[in-house]
Amino acid sequence: MEKALQKTESNSQKGDSQSQRSESHSQNNESKTDKSYYRTLSRNIMFTVIIVSFMPLIFVAGVLFIQFTTTYTAKTTAHLDTLVKKHRQNIDVFLNERQNNINQLAAMSTFENLSDHAFLERQLAILQREYGEVFTDLAVLNDQGEQIAYAGPFGLEGAHYKDAEWFKVAIKQPHYISDVFLGMRGFPHFTVTTRQFKDGKPWILRTSVHFQAFTDLVENIRIGKTGVAFILNQNGEFQTHTSLKIENPKKLYQKMLPTKIEFEAKLPENIDDKGSFTESDVDKKSNSTQSKRNSVESRDRRELSIEHRHIGNTLYVATMLQNKEWVLIFQQDAGDAFADLNRIRLTALIAFTVGGIAIIAMAMILSQRMVARIVKSEGEKEMMNQQVIEHGRLAALGEMAAGIAHEINNPVAIMVEEAGWIKDLLAEEEFQKSENLEEFTRALDQIRKQGLRCRDITHKLLSFARPAESGNHIININEMIAETVNLFAHEAKFSNITFEQHFKQNNLQFMASQTEIQQILFNLINNAMDAMKDIGGKILISTSKEDKMVKINVEDNGSGISQEHLARIFDPFFTTKPVGKGTGLGLYICYGIINKLGGNITVKSALNEGTVFTISVPAIEDQE
Amino acid sequence: MNEPRLLLVDDEVPFIEAISKRLKKRNFNVDMAHSGMEALEKLSKDDFDPEVVILDVKMPGMDGIETLEEIKRKHPLVEVIMLTGHATVPSAIDGMKKGAFDYLMKPCDMEVLVTKVGEAVAKKRAQESKIIEARMKDIMRRKG
């Protein structure tokens, strides 16, 4: 037995030190580490959610963006290509026609005819009637560059072109179209010539093409706000009228030249897209109409290709013209060309940003909520742990108390018996005369009385620790409360206390030992009456059924229990009653009994307002 | 009438010594046993023949209830008062169901003990006299 006691003691000591350790731990470090832990957790959840949400979003958006951009750019470029090709064709046709006009005229007339001023005037009139103001004048030059005949508004008869650049080139070629120049007349224009032979000597029929008529062809290409077209010759000189100011047009021309001629020549099938092949078909047709055209293969290639350049913020689409070293350049600000695309990009960006902000906000809220819930559940778990610890503590205390009670009861019994024996002996005659006889008797009585008090305490303790009474019966709690209250009726009348019973449901039943439940009710009512001893008041006992548990409330409006007392109210030997009045075991025993039944007992109290004890025990199901 | 013969059974020697002294002073004839086995041995001997056994419930070895069952089996007429010191009231009640006369809580009032023992002795003697009477009748009948 002593061994067992020591074991319990050491156990309880261990338990105490453990709980102390955990308490100090929780006070010092846990609150700090907990906070940072939860902050980290919250952050981790947030980042995870953000990353997981953003990954597919970015991926899908990126793919769509790239796809769309590519497609749209290709579409826009293709559109520009078509436009430029069409205009190149137009220009080519225009120039070819002019050339053909002259060629035809030269072929159908003789040098003599053409040298006749009147004939020439007539021919010019015919041409002007047919083609409008395109043809400004007509002139016939001999191989020395002397202007033999002239028809036109500028009166250039007899003019000498021997040193003019265009003449030097034109006299060597069957036909020729010059760059734009001011010439003798002082207006920008270009000439179209055809070379014929008379008596082995070459002569030239020349016409000037009206500059404005040619410029209109190009200027018609206008797209958006900034899209304009112009033509540059190999020297970077403008061949059309343009309002543009271009720095270093020569360099631009160089840049616009097809760069991959050789490469493309090697790989003809890779030259360009389908558009180019259809284009080449058109070219072939025009080639067939102009049988005299001699074109180098590389030049053909060059003519087919459309060059794209992106310089600065400007988009250039360029193509070589067929019969000249001229390049048709279409120029547009990229922002203007891709205005729609940019608008869609902006919309997408705004949508993405708003969505992203929404995701981040959601992630933050979500993580905070989750962590808050975790904190709450941890708190609940902590509370449960506390309850378990509390339960264990009380159980350990109970074991210890029972052990002590066991060990003390026998010595007390012996002491009481020995004291009784002395008293028996005192009764003998020889002691009767002793002057202290009365004192002896009183002392022995006291020993006996205190011994019996010890016995009461140990018996109460043992009744708590003893195993369940074999006889558990069906308890009809309402009846039992009524009976128990009756026992107090007399005492209550003196203390000015009234009882009130409130039963929400009849037939509230559970399994328990009758005496134990009676003991609990007795204890609770006794405590309630003590709390209202001086002032009087009301004790309300109510029963109800909640979640398969029978609930019993014992409520008083007495003095209440202070907070520090409330924490220890179920501890054994804890009492606020004067010494000798209470053992401090009443509620401890109640706790033990209710726990044994699988129920629980709780207390709520406010100073000077009253106290409520709530007992709940598993009910018997009504089904039977 | 001769002195009631009691047998005190408890492993707490000082306790039964004190009790026995007090009971002897109150004109009881008291013997002591410190275990269930010893009690049964003493009961089997003819020299003392106790009328009432005061039996502690909780003892090492053979405990109170077992001893009680054995006593009641071998000596059905001997009355037994259970003495319980601690959390053994239920077993004391159990004992009463098995034929014990009554039970007392340790430490007990001498007056209460004396009264209970007196009652037990009276019951035992009444029972015995009834048996004697019955025998007498039987003998008378045979005679007659």
Overall description:
Chain A has helices at residues 2-108, 111-115, 117-131, 165-170, 211-219, 249-256, 261-266, 274-289, 297-304, 334-337, 339-426, 429-432, 437-465, 477-495, 514-531, 563-567, 586-596, and strands at residues 135-141, 147-151, 175-177, 189-198, 201-210, 228-232, 306-311, 314-320, 327-333, 473-476, 497-503, 509-512, 537-546, 549-556, 600-606, 610-618. In chain A, a hairpin with a 3-residue loop joins strand 15 (600-606) and strand 16. By secondary structure, chain A is α+β, with helices and mostly antiparallel strands. In chain A, 27% of the residues are buried. Chain A has a 5-stranded antiparallel β-sheet with strand order 2-1-5-4-3. Among the domains of chain A are: 109-214, Beta-Lactamase, CATH 3.30.450.20; 467-618, Heat Shock Protein 90, CATH 3.30.565.10. Chain B is α/β, with parallel strands linked by helices. Chain B has a single domain (5-143), classed as Rossmann fold, CATH 3.40.50. In chain B, 53% of the residues lie in helices and 17% in strands. Chain B has helices at residues 13-25, 36-44, 64-74, 89-97, 110-143, and strands at 5-9, 29-33, 52-56, 79-84, 102-105. A 5-stranded parallel β-sheet of chain B has the order 2-1-3-4-5, sandwiched between helices. Chain B is globular, with a radius of gyration of 16 Å. The mean pLDDT of chain B is 86.
